[in-house]
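Quick start: read one record
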Amino acid sequence: MTTEAPAGGPRRTSGATKAAILEAARERFAADGYERATIRAIARDAGIDPSMVMRYYGSKEGLFAAASEVDLRMPALGGLPGKHIGAVLVGHFLDLWEADDVLAAMLRVAVTNAAGAERVQMVFAGQLVPLVAGVCPDPADAPRRAALASSQILGMALTRYVLRFPPAVAMSREEVIGWLGPTIQRYLTAEAP
C-alpha cells in the first residue's frame, strides 16, 4: 500500500511512512521533550500531512509509545562468573546509551511527563526484572533489586547523557564501570540486608 507523497516526491509505502514518522518523532521528542513536541512538527519533519500521524498512531501518546519501543538487548548473565555481573551490566548500558538517542529521549520525557515515566517503568519492568530474577538469590526479590540497579544506571545516564555534568561526562568507560559495577553487583547478588 502506498501513501501520499512527501512534498510532491515519490509515494511511500505505509511501512516507509511509519518508519519516517517514528524517526521524526524520536528526534523531535529527544530535542523538544514530550510536552513541546507537536504532531504538526513531527509530521513536517517526516514530510507528511499531520493526519497521517494520527491515522497510524491515533494520538501523541500512541506515537510516543511506538517511538519509545526499546529492546534493551539484555545480555545473558547466567553463564558469567558471579563477580562479573555488575561490570557486564554497566558496560552493556553504557553501550546502549552511547549508541541510541531513543533512550536519552525517553529519560528526558520520563522526568517531566507521567506517560513517559510509565513507559520507562514498563521497559525496565519487562526487561530488567526478568534478568535480575535469573541472577539474584531470591527471584521474589527481583523487582526491588532491579529498582536499586535502575537507580544507579538511570542516575548515571541522567548525569552523563542528559544533564551532561562535566565530571560524569569526563569519566572514561572503565572508570564508570569501576565505580558502578561493584554497586550493581551488590544490588543483584548480595544477600538481602
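DSSP finds ten helices and two strands in the chain.
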